Amino acid sequence: DFSSLHSKDLLPAKNGEEVTKHFLQELLNILLAYISKSLNRSSKVLDFHHPHQLKEGLEGFSLELQDQPDNLEQLLVDCQDTLKYGVKTAHPCFFNQLSTGLDIIGLAGEWVTSTANTNIFTYEIAPVFILMEDIIFKKMHSIIGWSEKEGDGIFCPGGTMSNLYSVLLARYHFFPRVKTAGMLALPPLALLTSTHSHFSIKKSAAVLGIGSESVFLVKCDESIALILMKYNLVLYPQGLVPFYVNATAGTTVYGAIDPLNDIADICERFGLWMHVDAAWGGGLLLSKRHRMKLQGIDRASSITWNPHKMMGVPLQCSVILVQKKGLLQECNQLCAEYLFQPDKHYDVSYDTGDKSIQCGRHVDIFKLWLMWKAKGSEGFESQVNHCLENAEYLYYKLKSRKDFQLVFQSQPEHSNVCFWYLPTSVRNMPPGPERDRELHMVAPKIKAKMMEEGMTMIGYQPLGDKVNFFRCVFSNPATQKEDVDFLLDEITRLGRE
Ligand code: ABU
């Protein structure tokens, strides 16, 4: 009975060990029940409530904070309710996001990390984690194909931040005076990226004072080489200096992979920084069957890779990898004397925190390191292959159905499969704006019903000239072909007129 106990009775309270043990055991029971439920196909993915309903409080679950402390019993109920009204992203029928699933070793890693509760800026207070980072970076560099003399990196809070680092580093590489003199040290700059690249490239330009209008989009269906030549002719006469090209290995919606070698040729020819946003596609490097899709990635100056996507590491776990050793440190270091004293009694090159634009940093390495230990590279490889096999299965299913239409006829390069559901009324309409208008409304209507019923979840969006379509992505190792069949059955059932 925890109803007469409060947080003050837990450790470090005197004799608080027993209460702490029982409290954590009870919490573990709640988490175990949640995990089992998440993996049970007959349970719901979500129990949807509108924001006002959650705010008003449901069945005694109140988000409001009081002056008086709640007892431990209430805190356990709060933990249970928080999970109850959330979304079970580990459910085999959760297809909504690029990060899905729940790896138990990764979860254990997160618990250990939180228990250690340290800050990964100095070797002094995070010795083991810092060395693990070093080991993992070497592993990733060698998978990419960089030599032992090359390569550096830092963990960041997500792919957007990793991409921001890439622009920051590229700018510093060409214009090192910017660090001290600021924008006055710069000519007007231009960045190039493909139309379907992640919004974070524009956001980075905005945040770094370059301006989002200085990001020039290259159409994906035109030869990258030609376009870059064109921009070279267009940008320079305008007084703009292109310095950075982002190639995407696994676009967010289509999972498309830019031709990395062609882009690398152009970057080498014009002396441009080549960044590869492989936040989503990086995981393919672990598969002998799929890694050739990223041929040329070793020629990149920097790479974003999110182990929290295709590799299934619990959120968050994202890196920026940099080919040129020492650049991260040079670009970002400010030598705060209270942290990075040069006269410490150990090798201070292991105080890696000054490479970062943050001060305090969460330890994201341990769960990844532990998972790598548990699976080996081969385990990650079969996980990746399994996800792409599911995508292939869905692709062929859709191809054979009259009530679905693929957005692209060709087989997806990654595990994204994009498609429309065609209700009978739409199927009987001739192609044209009227049909497009009707079709545009189909996916949102189905998604709304899907969320109300809660048995599966998939995302949709319009893109360019394409009206709303579904995007199914596979990154959850728990998902099987029967779940793919269920998804199509659900869409058909919910979309019936
Ligand atoms: N950073 C991209 C994540 C997008 C998605 O999960 O759909």
UniProtKB/TrEMBL annotation:
One of its GO terms (cellular component) is cytoplasm. One of its GO terms (molecular function) is pyridoxal phosphate binding. GO terms for biological process: gamma-aminobutyric acid biosynthetic process. Pfam families: Pyridoxal_deC (PF00282). Transmembrane segments: none annotated. SUPFAM superfamilies: PLP-dependent transferases. Keywords: Decarboxylase, Lyase, Pyridoxal phosphate. Coiled coil: none annotated. The keyword Glycoprotein does not apply. The modification N6-(pyridoxal phosphate)lysine is found at K309. Its cofactor is pyridoxal 5'-phosphate. Homodimer. PANTHER family: GLUTAMATE DECARBOXYLASE 1-LIKE, GLUTAMATE DECARBOXYLASE-RELATED. Belongs to the group II decarboxylase family. This is Glutamate decarboxylase 1-like. It comes from Pygocentrus nattereri (Red-bellied piranha).
